[in-house]
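Feature request, filed as a ticket because there's no other form

It would be nice if the structure record came with a short human-readable summary line next to the tokens. Right now we just get the raw output. Example of a typical job, pasted below so the devs can see what we mean:
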Amino acid sequence: MSTTFDHRRSDDGEHAGDIEMVGELFMPIDLLHRRCGEPMDLADAEAVLSAERLRPAG
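Raw output as currently delivered:
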């Protein structure tokens, strides 16, 4: 069983996804539950999710 925790953007406090611990690294997971890249260090995982924004369709 893995450990997962919420990530909220620091600028607006919006939930931007989750971060899953993978061994000693961290996997960013977006709001659609998609893995965003390969496991990485925590600061990079937080940066990936903080950069994600929901965009209107069309």
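Something like this underneath would help us a lot:
The radius of gyration is 11 Å.
The chain is about 15% helix and 30% strand.
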